[in-house]
Amino acid sequence: MKFGIVLHVTAAYASWDNFLLLAKEAEHLGYDSVWVSDHFISPSGRPHGLDAWTVLSALASITHKIRLGTYVLCNQFRHPSLLARMGATLDNISAGRLELGIGAGYFKDEHVAFGFSWNKHPIRIERLRETLQIIRKLWRENCISFDGKYFQLKNATLEPKPIQRPHPSLWIGGNSETIQRVVAELGDGWIPVLPTPKQLATGVIEIEKKMRTHGRDSRKLRVAYGGSGCALIAKDEDAVKELAEPLIRSMGKPMEELACLIGTPEQCIEKIEQYQEAGAQEIVAGFYDFPSPLGMRLFAKSVIPHFR
After folding, report:
1. Which residues, including other chains, have CB under 8 Å from residue 305's CB and lie 6 or more apart?
2. Pairing mode, if any, of strands 282-285 and 73-74?
3. Which residues pair with 3 in a beta bridge?
């Protein structure tokens, strides 16, 4: 089991100084990866957001081992040829540490506010499928031509290629059955947001089944529990309840019904074991107490060693 932290670019704590300290601390504590979200405004409408790619490029130069991921890119924001070049460049800068997560986009408000086209879900899925096809080709082949419904390329060669072979992993974010079909056809990994263990297990079974119909090796599927920014850990239950009260109030559900990773070290271990049994190989989540490093430190000390 691998573990990564998520830095949300639209969070109240989102500043370069905080991101720098948290990423360096995560690497020091032995986390496997750090992931950065991709938004212009927060779901609550807060107009604040660092650029994911710029942040990751900067982190690549001050970290050494920790892997660098996007949680997850909105496909509507960038042309696939540009995205392929950005990914290849970051993989070279980081000496092969890129994990590229991407989704179809879900937040209409930021598209409207910043002038990006907002299409119905089926069209966004079609565009995502074409993007993934183009990125794969540009990362692996030369002199590429592509005649899609939304994107066209003619004799395009991308150099330098990524360091990783055959290419960095392409993680698809989202929980819908439509997204699961895209994962099965074109993805290397699936990273659903706050799934229950049952939802994760059902999704893995369906994706693996569809992968086999596409002639793909389902044993190579990578699966991560996407914990968003609501992981919370404390030494005892009283402290958990106190710290989690504002989070639970904002989510509008009792703690027992949330798919967030909340609890004492023992409770977190039990929850992670359920996700592991469901098929998760990685746990990726932001801690609710960020920019404080206390939660991620306690997690690294008392939970991660159980799975190593």
Report:
1. none
2. unpaired
3. 283
Q: pTM of the predicted model, to two decimals?
A: 0.96
Domains and CATH numbers, the chain: 2-229+274-288 (3.20.20.30)
| Position 59 confidence tier, pLDDT thresholds 50, 70, 90 | very high
**What amino acid is encoded at 193 in this protein?**
V
CA distance linking residue 194 with residue 208, whole number of Å: 20
Distances (CA, A) of 175 to 3, 12, 43, 226, 229: 20, 26, 18, 10, 17
Angstrom distance (rounded) from CA 93 to CA 80 = 20
* Predicted confidence (pLDDT) per residue in 211-262, tens digit: 999 999 999 999 999 999 999 999 999 999 999 999 988 888 888 888 999 9
Nearest by Cα to 224 from 262, 287, 161, 172: 172
Q: What count of other Cβ atoms lies within 10 Å of the Cβ of residue 270?
A: 11
SS3 158: coil
For residue 160, the SS3 value is coil
Residues in CB range of 215: below 8 A, 6 or more apart = none
